[in-house]
Amino acid sequence: MKKVDHQKSLKAIGLISGGLDSALAVKIVQGLGVEVHGMHFILPWLDRPADTVIKMARQLNVPLEVFFCREEFLEMIKKPKHGYGVAMNPCIDCHIYQLQKAKEFMITSDADFVITGEVLGQRPMSQNRQQLLNIEKESGLGGKLLRPLSAKLLAPTELESCGVIDREKLFDFSGRSRSGLQSLAKNLGITDYIPTGGGCLLTDKNFAKRLKDLFTYGYRGHHEIILLSVGRHFRLSNHHKVIVGRDENENSCLLEQAHPKDVVLQLKDFLGPLALLQGKEPSQQMIDQAAFLVKRYSKFRDRMADVCYWRKEDPLTSEIARPKDMLEQDVEMLKIA
Q1: Can you give the pLDDT of all 337 residues of the chain as single tens digits?
Q2: Does residue 242 lie in a domain region?
């Protein structure tokens, strides 16, 4: 990596998650006269940045580079070097991956260092002192990774050691308390950020079950990854799966992300869930099972109500299914999560 030129203005790559901590880190470094370019990572089950992230970049007045994590990231999840957390969350490997990509962007954009909003001790798995050191080393950012919120509690970066960054203007936050960070945000005028508590979907055990199922049986494209966070999921065979929407928004998402060959099912004359039957050439029995699930999760499970089905690529040609009755225990056996 290049040496810092003391004669030119500094430029940094700031990782922006949409949360408060990353916004604070950017604002602090901007206050030191550093030009900051934002970088935001879109995980595979998302297809666009959250509105809050866009607003945050505007509020911070930084250009935003959006990086889409796809197959390479999914391969990392399958076999993380540092293992999982509570579910299927490879937090350490994920941090390393993102910082490696940030390093690449730093080099191509002629920036001098990378900044993050990490706080020492805030997360026990990936933000303890030893792991922060390991992550910095394995990402290849040794000496060029600045964590402004906890910098005074960590070893100085190259920029601090040579006096280019004033260490005294950085902070010493640690632990899980948010009060000091929120007070600083108020002082710095930061108002738009994603509240804490949502967490990564990989820490959700039900989502992890769906992802493991997809890794086990395979998938045809990115649209199936996006649909992991939508609806109720049922495995009919090694090659066929049903997803049943839980509300109007999920119905719309299912239809939008459906593969052209997917079978779409919906009540003929009533409002209710929409379902996708994924997989090549499903049998009539599978279509009837999917039709039963549409009725099962509607308000009309015990009434006469026809279920229509058609291929996504041919919405004008629909037929009536014959919902195949199933015991509740059989439904539970098919359910992935």
Answers
A1: 666 655 568 999 999 999 999 999 999 999 999 999 999 999 999 989 999 999 999 999 999 999 999 999 999 999 999 999 989 999 999 999 999 999 999 999 999 999 999 999 998 778 999 999 999 999 999 999 999 999 999 999 999 999 999 999 999 999 999 999 999 999 999 988 887 756 789 999 999 999 999 999 999 989 999 999 999 999 999 999 999 999 999 999 999 999 999 999 999 988 899 999 999 999 999 999 999 999 999 998 877 789 999 999 999 999 999 898 899 999 999 999 8
A2: yes
* Single residue among 154, 188, 222 that ends a domain in this structure: 188
Give the list of residues 6+ apart from residue 4 with CB closer than 8 angstroms, or none.
Answer: 10, 112, 113, 158, 159, 162, 164
Instruction: Write down which residue in 147, 163, 188 finishes a domain.
Output: 188
Q: What are phi and psi of 265, to 5 degrees?
A: -130, 140
Eight-state DSSP code of residue 100: H
Distance CA 235, CA 210 (A): 10
**Shared-domain flag, residues 137 and 217:** no
Read off the DSSP letter of residue 35: E
With beta carbons less than 8 A apart as the criterion, state whether 151 and 167 touch: yes
> Is residue 280 within 8 Å of 259, Cβ to Cβ?
no
Cβ neighbors of 224 (< 8 A, separation 6 or more) are: 214, 257, 259, 278
The CA-atom distances, in angstroms, between 283 and each of 41, 56, 266, 286 are 40, 49, 18, 5
CATH number for the domain including 119?
3.40.50.620
pTM more than 0.85? yes
The whole-angstrom separation of Cα 307 and Cα 270 is 9
**Which residues is 64 bridged to in the sheet?**
38
Instruction: Give yes or no: residues 143 and 235 share one domain.
Output: no
Pair of tokens at residue 162: 């040579």
SS3 of 176-236: the string is CCCHHHHHHHHHHCCCCCECCCCCCHHHCHHHHHHHHHHHHHCCCCHHHHHHHHCCEEEEE
What type of residue sits at position 323?
A: P
